[in-house]
Automatic annotation (TrEMBL):
SUPFAM superfamilies the UniProt entry points to: ARM repeat, Putative DNA-binding domain
Protein name: DNA-binding transcriptional MerR regulator
InterPro entries, alphabetized: ARM-like, ARM-type_fold, DNA-bd_dom_put_sf, MerR-type_HTH_dom, MerR_fam, PBS_lyase_HEAT
Domain HTH merR-type residues, every copy: 1-69
Length: 334
């Protein structure tokens, strides 16, 4: 079969067939009377073998070795191909992610594209200082690559850089809260913590709704951060978690402050006081916990808290009694 016919049947151009011949990969076994190359059936099968191996990503040199070396072990080459393919996929995925982020920022011109590329490169720098400057400068750009900021915030271990990233996200407008909420589902506890810490600083209503949902999160750290933030935002749903924090001595001072802020409304004050009293009566027998609950009543106004403190002034626990008496003295002096 002549080279032109082989090219038509195999899909390999005549030029490439000649290249294969120059490399010694496949040589036509015959010549016509006129001196033209003549390929046998075995030659054509070899051509298809070459194309099959090339489709796996082998170089022509590797193809020749695979076909001609009797000692060739395909498993080693396949393992190497798997490794190279994974690296290529990772590289292509990184490029795709970068392109998607650039597109999401809706650059108006190439100058904007170059600025965004520079920012993305800086956020991925090994230098903490470079990452921090990139986070702080991102708020000055016309369009923020929110996805990149969220990814950086969820992976950042340096506290100063993490703070700058959270601030940048808080300035970024819509979109960041929902992306951060996805981080709450991470199997890595540190990522969940960074996600809720960042969500706490988001000022929008969507963040408040997501934090309210986070009160039911299985991760206690997430629940506690959400409760503190919601207490500061006046969301009464946080009260049970805040009281648990007081009992468990987990950021108990901040939790008590949040309860005090929620108690600024008279109706809320009585409900919070009633919960604290119930916890004192039935929730725990641990002396240190009862003392913290008594201290928490100090910032709760209203008659329910005052009556509870009067009862606690007669408590068998001398520290509880003295604490309640002291608080009542301050309240009477106001």
């Amino acid at each position: 079969m002549l080279i032109g016919e082989v090219a038509r049947r195999s899909g390999v151009s005549a030029r490439m067939l000649r290249h294969y011949e120059s490399l010694g990969l496949v040589r036509p076994t015959g010549r016509t009377d006129a001196g033209y190359r003549a390929y046998s059936g075995e030659d054509i099968r070899r051509i298809f073998h070459i194309e099959s191996l090339r489709s796996l990503g082998l170089s022509l040199r590797e193809v020749g070795r695979a076909l001609d070396d009797p000692g060739f072990r395909p498993s080693e080459l396949v393992d190497d191909l798997v490794h190279r393919t994974r690296e290529r996929i990772a590289s292509e995925t990184e490029l795709l992610t970068r392109l998607r982020r650039i597109g999401a920022a809706e650059p108006a011109g190439w100058e904007d594209v170059l600025q965004i590329v520079g920012l993305l490169q800086a956020l991925g720098s090994k230098s903490a200082g470079t990452r921090q400057r990139a986070a702080l400068s991102s708020a000055e750009e016309a369009a923020w690559p929110v996805e990149a900021l969220v990814e950086a915030a969820l992976s950042e271990t340096d506290p100063n850089v993490a703070g700058a990233l959270r601030w940048a996200l808080a300035q970024s407008g819509e979109g960041g809260s929902a992306l951060l909420a996805e981080g709450l589902g991470s199997p890595v506890a540190a990522v969940r913590k960074r996600a809720v810490q960042s969500l706490v600083e988001m000022p929008d209503g969507e963040a408040t709704a997501l934090l309210r949902d986070a009160l039911a999160h299985p991760d206690i750290v997430v629940r506690r951060y959400a409760a503190l933030a919601l207490g500061a935002r006046g969301v009464a749903d946080a009260v049970p978690t805040l009281i648990d924090m007081v009992v468990e001595e987990a950021n108990d001072v901040d939790a008590a402050d949040a309860l005090g802020a929620l108690a600024s409304d008279p109706a809320s004050a009585d409900r919070i006081a009633a919960r604290l009293v119930d916890c004192l009566a039935h929730g725990t027998a641990e002396p240190s916990a009862r003392r913290r609950l008594t201290q928490a009543l100090a910032d709760i106004p209203g008659p329910t808290a005052s009556r509870a403190l009067a009862d606690l002034a007669q408590d068998e626990d001398r520290v509880v009694a003295l604490t309640a008496t002291y608080i009542l003295g301050i309240r009477d002096a106001r």
